[in-house]
Known about the structure:
The complex is a heterodimer.
Chain A: H1 4-38, H2 45-61, H3 64-82, H4 90-102, H5 106-122, H6 128-147, H7 154-176, H8 183-201, H9 209-212, E1 213-214, E2 217-218, H10 226-261, H11 271-290, H12 294-304, H13 329-338, H14 356-364
Chain B: H1 2-22, H2 35-43, E1 51-56, E2 65-70, H3 71-89
Amino acid sequence: MQTPRRQLATTKAHRRCNAACVLVFACTAFALSTFAAEAPNHFNETRAQALLLAGQAALEDGDLTLAQTNLDQAIQLLKINEGLYSTEQLAPIEQLMWAQMRAGLWTQLDTSLGYYYWLLERIEATTLDAQLAIAKNMRSLYLEAAAHPSNPMPPRHLSAALRTNWQTISYIEATLGAQHSALIPWLYDGLLLQFIESRLNERQGLTNYQYKTDGSEFISGWSLSRREAKEASHSIGLSLLDRIETLSRTSIQAESAQADGRGNTSASDDPRLQQLDAALALYRGDWERLSNNENGAGEYYAEADKLVTFRNVPRAPEFLPRGSFETDPKVLAGATNASRDTAVQPWAERFPGVTQRVINALASSGGRL
Amino acid sequence: MKKRWFLPVSALLAGILLSACAAKPGGYVRKLPTDAEVAQYNASVEPEERIVCRRETPVGTNVPRRMCRYIRDIEETSRFHREQLKRALR
């Protein structure tokens, strides 16, 4: 039998033991919960998506450091979750490149570009539409990089924008055929880019950059003279319009032939062909005007004016080049008038004469089939 | 009197000469790429494979001709000429 004193001691000992157990249990639970809260779950897909969204939001807000941190983490998580060659990485890498470019981190941008192209080569399951969207995004990225005030080599990025557009044209030709009408917006964008290039050519010391620039090195001694570079630029613009004419004419004639088979009007009577001729005369006139050849422009404009409905289409230099290729005079006049707000808003100090309107047009056109 | 037949005959001769330049015996027409074709080609190849087309005036004539060359060839020729010049100036 236990004495009262001993009984009390035993009860106290039990209580202490219970308290210690509770404490140990609580500590363990707390530690686990803390660890679970702090350690990210690398296999949680929603976390990667949340980081991507946070990165995009930060990029839009102009917080470039936060954007890069979030997007970098999102890319790492997607690599782990979805695999090294996963298409899911493309979106955050694109956003990361925009953030790096806007922050003026040119070395980091080059690294990301290298990884992005490496990844694209290994991803096979992408549609043509997706490829065109990628090309359009890259073209815009290069253009903005070329206009960035801290860019040490703007011609290199402008050159890359032009190359991207030509590569896309070659890609469409290889995929859909050289006569496909999907080429038209890309050919016209080529003309807009050629115009931007010609404005950079106006600046002393940057002549012939399309041949001089290659990667990170300038090469000189064999490039074209300034006059030749201008002539080449003018000739490329005209060639692009010639190709647009061929493709548009073929497309209209094919449609007319189909309709003819159903007993409708013949191809030669199609009013769309007359409209096409007038529209092309207008665009060729625009191109001559932009090349300071007023006589040539006047001749083309007179040709366009043979179709009465084209006489009301504005053709003042501040509206040129037009944002897209259209053949309907009403649409042409409407589109030109709608761009009045941005008609004189300069795009970048480095590119005199290029307005924000042209860049907006490049950002909104092409891309889709 | 002589001048009356001189113009049409010289025009005919010029035509024959020009067509001889453009067409080879097999009917193959030698056509240099346009500036747009050059730009499109250059965009799809490695830098060392790119070409440049420009007007050059060959030795012995004052008539410039459009010539297309590989950039690597132009660079090699330039390097060779520089070295020759250095050697001659020594």
